[in-house]
Amino acid sequence: MSDLSVSVDRRLAPLFEPITLAGVPLRNRVAMAPMSRYFCKDGQPHQGVVDYYRRRAAGGVGLILSEGTYIPHPSAASYENVPHFYGAALEQWKHVIDAVHLAGGRMFPQLWHTGSFRQTGMGPDPSLPGLGPSDNSNDFTNLPERTRAMTEAEIADVIAAYAAAAADAQRLGFDGVEVHGAHGYLIDEFFWANTNRRTDEWGGDRAARTRFAVAVIRAIRASTGPDFPISFRFSQWKQQDYTAKLGETPDELAQVLRPLADAGVSILHCSTRRFWEPGFPDLGEMTLAGWAKKLTGLPIIAVGGAGLDRPGIKDAAAAPLDHVAEPLARGEFDVLAVGRALLADPDWLQKMRMGHEDTCLGYNKSHLETLF
Ligand SMILES: Cc1cc2nc3c(=O)[nH]c(=O)nc-3n(C[C@H](O)[C@H](O)[C@H](O)COP(=O)(O)O)c2cc1C
Prior knowledge:
two-stranded antiparallel sheet; TIM Barrel; binds flavin mononucleotide; 12 strands; alpha/beta
C-alpha cells in the first residue's frame, strides 16, 4: 500500500512511496542519518535511547541508521558515552530494534572504529594508544599524542570485531548493518594516502589502500551470509581535510567503490554536506550519489542538507525542495537520509508528507543537549 498523501508536493511524491532496498521492504524512501548523541554512559544504551529511536519510527521514517556504535575492539573508542555494539549493551539494542519494528520501521546499526582519534587514557583500556594504519595517521589532527601503526594481528582482530558486531546485529533482528567508512575514521584512514603510509599489503596504490575495507566487508559477509544487507558509508572529504578526495575522477572513485561492491556491499551511502551538488563539477550535474550508482549499479542512500530549508530558518547547508526533486527525478539515489531535521523534529516526515513543512521544528544546536 502506498504511503502517499494527497497534499505532498507532487515532485516529492516518490520519496513517500515504498521501496525494497537490498531486500529490505521500506514503507518510504526516507532514512534517518546516523548521528552520534553521546548519551550512553559506559557505552550502555538505556530506555531514553530506545524511546528516541522509537519516536522516529513512529514518525514514519522508513529506515533508521543508528548513531555510530563501537565494534568490540578496545582501540575502537575515542569519545565517551558512545554506545557499544557488544557485551551488555546488546540486550538493550534488542529493545531498540523491537521498538522500531513495532512502530513499522527498519533499522541498521552503524559500526564504527574511530581510528587515530583515540589517545592514551581513553576507555575501555586506558593504556592503549590510538591505532591507525601508520604512525603518522593523526598528523592531520591537533591531537598531541602520535598514533601507533596497527600490527598485523591488530588488523586481523579489528576485522574480526566488525564481523562479530554484524553477526550480533543479525542475531538481534536488525535489518542490516552500516559500516562507517567515511569522515577520516579508521577505514577512511586506510583509504587516504596521507594517513596510510604502510609499505605492506595494506598500503600503496589506491587498490592496496582499499584492501582493509574489502577485508572488513568480506568478513561481515562471511559472518552473516549472502543476503544480509551491508551499507557502506563513504565520503570524498575527511574531517582532517575537507578538500581531500577519495577519487579525483570517476575512474579513481571506481577503483575504491567497485572492489567494495565485489566484496559484498549491498548499498552505498554517499556522505556529502549538500547532496544535490555535482559530484564532479567539470563533468555535469550528476551528484556524487548518481556517480556512485553509475559506477557500481548498487542501490544508493544520499544525504546532506535535506529538510533544513524552512521559512524563517537560514542554514548554509539547507536544501530547498527543488534540489531534492531534481536528482530524485533523475533517479540518482534510492533513499534520502535526513539528519538534523529529524533530530530536531521526530515528526518531520509526517509533516512533510502532509505538505506542512512550515510546522517542522527547525534544528539548532540546543537540540544536541537532550535526547528527545
Ligand atoms: C549531531 C550529529 C552527529 C553525527 N554523527 C554521525 C555519526 O555517528 N556517523 C556518521 O556517519 N555521521 C554522523 N553525522 C553526519 C550525519 O549523518 C549527516 O551526514 C549530516 O548531518 C548531514 O545530513 P543533514 O544535513 O541532513 O543533517 C552526524 C551529524 C550530526 C549533526
